[in-house]
Structure formats: structure tokens, C-alpha cells
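Protein in question quoted for reference:
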Amino acid sequence: MTVSRLLNEAVQRLKKAQIEDPALEAGLLLSWALKRPRAYIYAHPEMQVDPVEVRRIMELVERRSLGEPFQYITGECEFMSLTFKVNPSVLIPRSDTELLAEAALFSLGCQTPFVSHALFRVPKQGVRRVLDVGTGSGCLAVTIARYARDVRVDALDISEKALETARQNAELNGVSSLIHFIRADFLKDAGFAEQPYDLIVSNPPYISREDRTGLMASVEKFEPELALFADDGGLSFYRRLAHLSSGLLAENGVILVECGFNQSQSVADIFKERGMEILVLKDLAGIGRVVAARCRV
């Protein structure tokens, strides 16, 4: 079968399944499966594809047509210009979370032009200790260890399968020696911190269980529930972090958390109730996406 015919059949199957932008997704799947740039595939429509390879590719197309995320099919995704392995035990890193990663790097002294320079910075002297709560794929922990200087990161998660994926990503990106992985239930355990942290980052579960009916089917069906939903209207992790902050944060330490599109004020209020100084960072759509908190100085 020619690659042109194969591409057309893939597009039609995805179109029938009402996948958004089927032509783009079909091209991406063929590019990944054939290990050729999309431009090459489009430029060589008469290239022959082996029947065994055709069947394999159409199996991938069928998985996508049933709603399985492209990143789970390929087993990888890009975040902050780094490659991460992903699977159904971890949440797929989103571009929205890059604002949190950029904020963390700025707080640690990196030059990040897209973050407000009013954001709190942690002291520069010595090795800075960082805690990533709910590390999942390790995208935040690995990014911080990869780009920031003089850091040691503790990456915490309740899921051993998620931690194994995060370990693989640390190795993939050459930062295994800079990250210590901790299995713990953040909502219940408190003895995981050997020393205070200069920076705490978290993209916690923040979707209210009452809102699950409004999720995209691909998210609800395929991504891990542990990484999506939280009690107390989606605010339980923020309340727990605020409660533990006095014992977890070093002097002049900073907390950075991602929140949902309508949660920034509620999350900010939780930390304000602890007497903390607050700053809300907005994404490109003008939505409050990251809440920064520190003890008043």
C-alpha cells in the first residue's frame, strides 16, 4: 500500500470517530510509526508501506479513534523542550503546566522572560532544596533539576507506578543523581521531610469530583483518577500544603502551585489565611493559573 493511501484511510477512520483535526493526527501517527518527518511522508506519496507495517499503523489509528490519547499511544511527549515517557499511570504533561515550571526556574534564579519579575525568589546561597508534590511523570522535578543550578529535588507521589515512570524520565534526561524519589500519601503522611525546603512546587489533583461529568472523554477514560480528582471541591491538596507549610518551608521559602481555571482566588485565600504573601500568575489567556506563596518578610 502506498503511504498516500494509508494516510487517507487513517484520516477517514479518525474523521468517522470525530477526532479533532484528523488529518493532522493521522500525519503525526504515520510520522511516528514510520520514523519519518511528516514533510517526508507528504513529499513521497508513492512510497510503499509493508503490509505488516500497514496493519500495525491501522491498529494505532484504531486506538486513537477510540479516544486513547496520542501521547499514550506513542509512549512519550515533550515538556519544556525535554522528552518524557508517559503511560496511563501518569498524567500527560500539559502546556499549561509550563507556566508553573517557568515560575519555579525563575524563583531559583534562572532567566525566564515570560514570568513576572515580581515573583518571589529563593535565596541563592548554597544548594537549594526543592519538593515536588505529586510528581507523576516527574516533568516538574526533572525540568528543575535539568535547568536550574545548585538544586536537589525530592519528588513525592503516592503511586509507585508513577514514581517508576518518573525515575525513567530522570534517567532519560540525565538528572537521576539530583532527584530523590519518595513514595508517600501527602494528605496523610508528614514524616517525609528530613530538612525544610527552599521551594515547593505542585500540580496537584484539583478537579472536584462533582465536575467529572464535564471532562473530555479521553481524559476521564484514560488518565489516572488519582492525578485528576480531589475532595473539598478540588481544594484538599492546597489546604494540606498550607497546613504543613510552616514545617516544610525554609526561611524565605516559596510555594508554587498550579490551579484550575476558576480556582486561583480560592487557592490564594487558603494561603492568605495562613498569613502568607500571595502572587497570582496568569496564563496567556488571562486565567489565574499559578499561585505563589511565601511567609511575609
